[in-house]
Amino acid sequence: MDNKKLYVVGIGPGDRSYLTARASEALEGAEVIAGYTVYTELIKKYYPDKEYIVTPMTKERERCVLALEAADGGRITAMVCSGDAGVYGMAGLILELACDYPKVDVEIVPGVTAALSGAALLGAPIGHDFAVISLSDILTPWEKIEKRLRMAAQGDFCIVLYNPSSRRRSGYLKRACDILLEYMSGATVCGYVRSIGREGEESRVLSLSELAETEADMFTTVFIGSMSTALMNDKMVTKRI
Amino acid sequence: MDNKKLYVVGIGPGDRSYLTARASEALEGAEVIAGYTVYTELIKKYYPDKEYIVTPMTKERERCVLALEAADGGRITAMVCSGDAGVYGMAGLILELACDYPKVDVEIVPGVTAALSGAALLGAPIGHDFAVISLSDILTPWEKIEKRLRMAAQGDFCIVLYNPSSRRRSGYLKRACDILLEYMSGATVCGYVRSIGREGEESRVLSLSELAETEADMFTTVFIGSMSTALMNDKMVTKRI
Questions:
Q1: What share of chain B has pLDDT > 90, as a percent?
Q2: B-contacting residues of A 101-160, CB under 8 Å?
Q3: Is the pLDDT of residue B1 over 60?
Q4: Residue A44 in contact with residue A51, Cβ under 8 Å?
Q5: Range B196-202 contact pairs with CB under 8 angstroms and sequence separation of 24 or more
Q6: What is the mean pLDDT of residues B38-67?
Q7: What is the CA radius of gyration of chain B?
Q8: What percent of chain A has pLDDT over 70?
Q9: Do A110 and B117 touch (CB under 8 A)?
Q10: What is the pLDDT of residue B2?
Q11: d(CA A76, CA A2)
Q12: Residues of B in contact with A121 (CB under 8 A)
């Protein structure tokens, strides 16, 4: 076994209760923990005695290289990602860059992504087929995002929106809802969750028309029901039809 | 606080290392554990001293009613689901039936669904927007499944297929691939994972044309890449484009 080890760890929404046993084990065994500031802050209180490599959100490539360098230098390293390691996480970039570090053994440790942790708070909105779409157009052209929204609506998928908004993209959730409203009823059962498992956690069930008039932020995950989604005791439930 | 408690717990693919801390806590605290035979068998070795309510796969409604009755009778109960509690799991049916048991407090405990645990073994296939589709037509008309496959292909989503095959539906994976091949290149990077985290775990990366000629079973999860999916060091990686 190679002992140059890099774990890419999905830590779930933040609270320790969402960590898997394997994720805890990887973090406990790591000498170095790398990540974006917000996520390392969530982890630091549980694992204070580690060396931390922290970079801001835009410096993803640099962060991955630093983590690979640390692992290649012989220190057991863990790169933390919020939610799952692979869903809009660092796993792909690490695997791409790892081609230059053939001695580093990369292990992806999956975690509870916001589509799952958010769904559990709202009820069972993704009990049947669903599509996950990020509204961030930093790397993806808006035309591609719009096409996916149209296809997901026509396929009657439940839709989970990641990164529905940010300061720079304040009108994006409304734009997305307006596209969906071309195909779907304004009464479609929707929901959103904010700051899952963290201070200020908030969830709300509402109609698609109401959602179009709602302000979201980058810690919000949005759920749009399919034709089989109904409200039951104030919970959002998609039947397996 | 009401003490009539029913947890619906996603246990991940089966091995204890995938359990979240909250899921372990719920199972440890439960007096009664309900579930489908295959999943309760996975759990029993860790929690042997519980009362088990076990029903076969087709008896889902009965299983949920028995779990709700146990909870309503004052025994702390956990309904276990493989993967996540909500993704093709029992959360929806429990919430629906729970309307008749107003004193039972239902808590959904999310878990690592096969889209995430399988992705981690293959690399990072769902690093960007993706769609999850079940090929089981027990409850869903095939026309609806086919429509979703067509929409997901046209939207250039990464696609995760659950229940790709069974004894009764032996040709379904090929049928699905043939539909996707109307829109996608035969060289599209695909992968599958079988018996994740269990004895006989197996994963393979292959092309869409090869996938169309592959036999799957009900413990297989299939991943179909988007136009941004590539092979890197034999790993399936979808770039965030």
A1: 87
A2: 108-113, 116-117, 119-121, 123-134, 139-140, 144, 147-148, 150-152, 154-157
A3: no
A4: no
A5: B196/B13, B196/B14, B196/B114, B196/B117, B196/B118, B196/B121, B196/B221, B197/B12, B197/B13, B197/B14, B197/B15, B197/B17, B197/B18, B197/B117, B198/B13, B198/B14, B198/B15, B198/B42, B201/B121
A6: 91
A7: 19
A8: 99
A9: yes
A10: 55
A11: 11
A12: 108
Cβ contacts of residue A239 below 8 Å, gap of 6+?
A127, A128, A228, A229, A230, B92, B96
What is the mean predicted confidence (pLDDT) over B70-93?
97
User: Taking the CA of residue A72 as centre, how many other CA atoms within 13 Å lie in the half-sphere pointing to its CB?
Assistant: 14
pLDDT value, residue A2: 55
- Cβ within 8 Å of residue B127, ≥6 positions away: A86, A87, A88, A89, A91, A92, B237, B238, B239, B240
- Predicted interface score ipTM higher than 0.90: yes
- Chain A / chain B CB contacts < 8 angstroms: 220
pLDDT at residue A57 greater than cutoff 80: no
The encoded tokens of residue B132 equal 């999850």
Contact list, A113 vs chain B (CB under 8 Å): 116
Query: What single-letter DSSP state applies at residue A14?
Result: S
Helix, strand, coil tally for chain A in percent (to 5) = 35, 25, 40
Bigger pLDDT: B155 vs A55: B155
β-bridge partners, B223: B160, B191
SS3 B231: strand
Tokens of B18: 């995938």
The whole-angstrom distance between A241's CA and the closest CA on chain B is 5
Mean pLDDT across chain B: 95
Calculate how close chain B gets to A183, using CA atoms only, in Å: 14
Q: What would the 3-class secondary structure string for B160-179 be?
A: EEECCCCCCCCCHHHHHHHH
Q: Which backbone phi and psi does B46 adopt, to 5 degrees?
A: -90, -30
Q: Which residue of A has its CA nearest to B111?
A: A112
C-alpha distance from B185 to closest chain A C-alpha (Å):
19
Q: How confident is the model at residue B197 (pLDDT cuts 50, 70, 90)?
A: confident
Residue A82's pLDDT band (boundaries 50, 70, 90)? very high
Residue with tokens 């949920």: B64
Chain B residues touching A87 at Cβ < 8 A: 116, 119, 126-127, 130
